[in-house]
Amino acid sequence: MATLTQLADKELLAEAQRLGGHQTQRETVNEALKEYIRWRKQIEAIQHFGTIDFDPEFLAEIDRKSQPR
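Above: the chain's sequence. Below: its structure in token form.
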């Protein structure tokens, strides 16, 4: 099985570790993977903008319920 340093570009890994203030290469890679996943999920969510139809009556009902009587 390959180690982290065998899988990653050493210069990129060192720069990411320095910029992130991470103590270990493992911590650096784990954080980079978390950020990558978050970023990809954001892109996926953005692609859905404008594709969902909202019922204006539903929003009006919420507004009416929030008004003091």
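Helices lie at 4-7, 10-20, 25-46, 56-66.
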